[in-house]
Amino acid sequence: MGKTSAGRISILGLFAAIIILQNYVPMIGYLPVSPLNITTIHITVIIAAVVLGPGDGAIVGGIWGVVDWIRALTVTSSALGNIVMVNPLISVVPRILIGLIAGWLFAKLARPNKRLTMPLVISGIAGSLINTVLVLGGIALFFGNGSAILAAINFRALTPYILFVAGTNGIPEAIAAGILVPLIAAPLLKYTKLGQQRFKH
């Protein structure tokens, strides 16, 4: 038990370090091709969720959310991110749910001694869509009718454009997750002790 717990904590710490690097090193976690950027950090969260389980996946997702929230507060995010991501219901909660739901979904779909490719693809796409839908929903809910604090910005007029751009970004993000999660997570599940304990190959 002690070795298992130590191994899980070590891998959890490694995922946390990767998340922090992806947030602050340019072109690793965010690809600046639009006002909202294309995100790749959700793939790390999903991989953590399928390898470690939904609980630890939620922790890794929460780490991403908190770091993203801090970036928004310290004006190191994108122009729109500094406005919308200061709300933890947009920056933190969706990221926790990525790990929780993707990890739960994979645990429900995966079977020992069966190929894990399709469960990993489904979990990757689902986790990506959760991030897109909840972040967009939060923007529409909290900023769709304008912002009293930032009255100079007409969010009512801007929100449809934000939703269109982010929705367009959401498609390649989901495709990337569906491809990369199986490629990266399958060897981790096969060759790490944690993965072998969950699924006997």
From TrEMBL:
Q: Name one GO molecular function term.
A: transmembrane transporter activity
Record carries keyword Transmembrane helix? yes
Query: Any transmembrane segments, and where?
Result: 12-31, 43-67, 79-106, 118-142, 174-192
Key word Membrane present: yes
The record's annotation in Gene3D superfamilies points to:
1.10.1760.20
This protein's UniProt keywords = Membrane, Transmembrane, Transmembrane helix
Entry protein name: Uncharacterized membrane protein
Organism, scientific name: Pediococcus ethanolidurans
